[in-house]
């Protein structure tokens, strides 16, 4: 897990924000998560992603894609679609997905 935010990119690009609350069922989740990270990592339009979970259980993953076609390829991947179905059936109490086009992006890194 990284300790730095994903770098700023030259806009426009697309971001998908997946917020969720998990169930207690962990059956198959770690293996599926590893597979999803492998699949999305192979997407040439992926710019990066970051994920965090609060002590209260709210999880937020933000994925950044070069364009809507790259995000659509991720959404339509057969393994990802199967994982989404299992997520609704077993792993998530609730979730929301927000997709937006980023119009402005900048960052800061302290040197020294």
Q: State the distance separating the first and last CA atoms.
A: 22 Å
Summarize the biggest pleated sheet: 4 strands, antiparallel
Number of helices: 3
Widest β-sheet, arrangement of strands:
2-3-1-4
> What proportion strand?
25-35%
Identify the notable features of this structure and list them briefly:
4 strands; single chain; 112 residues; alpha+beta
Brief write-up:
By secondary structure, the protein is an alpha+beta fold.
What would you say this structure looks like, in words?
There is one protein chain. The protein is an alpha+beta fold and 112 residues long. 32% of the residues lie in helices and 33% in strands. The chain has three helices and four strands, in the order βαββααβ. The protein has helices spanning 29-41, 68-76, 78-91; strands spanning 13-22, 46-53, 58-65, 92-102. A four-stranded antiparallel β-sheet has the order 2-3-1-4. Strand 2 and strand 3 form a beta hairpin. Helix 1 (29-41) runs antiparallel to helix 3 (78-91). The longest helix is centred in the last third of the chain and has 14 residues, at 78-91.
How do the helices and strands line up, and which of them pair or pack?
Layout: E1 13-22, H1 29-41, E2 46-53, E3 58-65, H2 68-76, H3 78-91, E4 92-102
Antiparallel strand pairs: 1-3, 1-4, 2-3
């Amino acid at each position: 897990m990284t300790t730095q935010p994903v770098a700023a990119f030259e806009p426009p690009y697309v971001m998908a924000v997946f917020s969720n609350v998990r169930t207690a069922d962990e059956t198959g989740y770690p293996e599926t998560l590893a597979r999803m990270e492998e699949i999305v990592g192979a997407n040439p339009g992926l710019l990066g992603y970051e994920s965090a979970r609060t002590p209260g259980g709210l999880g937020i993953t933000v994925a950044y894609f070069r364009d809507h076609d790259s995000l659509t390829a991720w959404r339509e991947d057969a393994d990802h679609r199967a994982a989404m179905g299992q997520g609704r059936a077993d792993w998530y109490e609730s979730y929301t997905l927000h997709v937006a086009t980023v119009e402005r992006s900048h960052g800061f890194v302290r040197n020294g």
